[in-house]
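Late entry, magnesium ion complex.
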Amino acid sequence: MRISLVIPCFNEERGLEDLYAVLTRVLPTVSEDFEVLLVDDGSADGTLAVLRRIAARDPRFKYLALSRNFGKEASMLAGLRHADGDVVALMDADLQHPPELLARMVDLAARGYDQVVARRSRRGERPVRRLVSTLYYRLVNKVVDVTLQNGAGDFRLLSRRAVQALLSLGEYNRFSKGLFAWIGFDTAVIDYDNVQRRQGDSSWSLRKLLNYGIDGVLSFNSRPLRLGIYLGALVTTVAFGYAAWVVARAVRHGVDVPGYVTVMCGILGLGGLQLLFLGVIGEYVGRIYAETKRRPHFLVKESGGTGRAPVTLPSGPEVGEVVAEPFAQGIAR
Ligand code: UDP
Ligand code: MG
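Prediction complete; structure with ligand written out below:
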């Protein structure tokens, strides 16, 4: 079984040689036939130089460099698209995904599982963060169609047909956790303990996490809009009831002017709700806009380690089109 390892790298200069050392130790025990595909996601540090060096040294290591930082989803996609193994593993560059697990994962894949997920425990994380993520997954699973698992992230092994399935999903907004769940297939899960990052910093800030959370809720269906309908219906019913009561009282007792508090609460409450759902609608419209442009998910500026000298892809529309064809079209052919 030929194994491809896809590793997105963003500003990982300092950790890459460690990664190389660990992989060259571990991978040969997993399979004789493997390739490692490192994707430089427009790093600002010397990541690309290190990748060139590693690829020149070891023909089993290849690299792609994207033209700028497209984000982890895009760099994983670039890697998946170029990987040619019978099974493809996705892994982080910071050794937070222990490569030692690959042997067991490949074992399970050989037994017929199309997806083998390594699920991390949240040991060692701050309790607040742990609580928030537990609550988040409870909530999000009520809203989305697919089941998202807490701790089951991008560290996974995919069979060829699972990879093909993923590549056939051409959407521009890629929420890969959801996409993995959406394609289905037989999935095996193995657990491991959370590992702290050795080098560098995580690129996740609180704001990014929050946005990621919103993405998760919005990526899979229009249920948040449905929520708007229900809430609107509820508020309208209550409002009609209240209006009837106010009118009846005015008829019986005449108008009494005070009511400032009620009016303010009504205006502010409704205003808030309207803004909230305007935001939700806006999100969907924005997504539609992004999808209709059909831009490529990433652009490759250089690739190497294929036994030849590094290829710098010339810019210009002709080549740009070949490299950057929209994803769905690439698959359709
Ligand atoms: N990464 C990437 N592009 C980005 C951000 C991150 O390719 O824009 C890569 C990064 O190099 C690492 C993986 O994605 O290999 C996970 O990133 P990180 O360790 O920062 O996230 P965390 O482990 O904290 O979830
Ligand atoms: Mg990490």
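The longest helix spans residues 260-293. Will revisit in the morning.
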